[in-house]
Amino acid sequence: MMRVEFHPDAEWELTEAQAWYRQRSDVAAQAFALEIDHALRSITEAPERWPKMQRGERRFLLARFPYSILYRIRGSDIFIIAVAHLKRRPGYWRSRR
Description:
Elements: E1 3-6, H1 8-24, H2 26-45, E2 58-61, E3 67-74, E4 77-85
Parallel strand pairs: 1-4
Antiparallel strand pairs: 2-3, 3-4
Helix pairs in contact: 1-2
């Protein structure tokens, strides 16, 4: 299985999202964590399955939450560029490498 690395800002976004759900509901926080785990597992199992965007990154849309995981394939690694909320600042992450 491929190794997953996070851009520091993507890691921060994930932490912030988890905290937001935890403040509102333990059930929602747990569901969000399970959805993220499922997404990362799915991406590592078949990284080329999800559509490529303009700059070569790929996007996995979460099913139950308004987030997408944007990533690039780097050899045998998956590099998570952003854990992006779908309703906030579209494309803000494009300059991340």
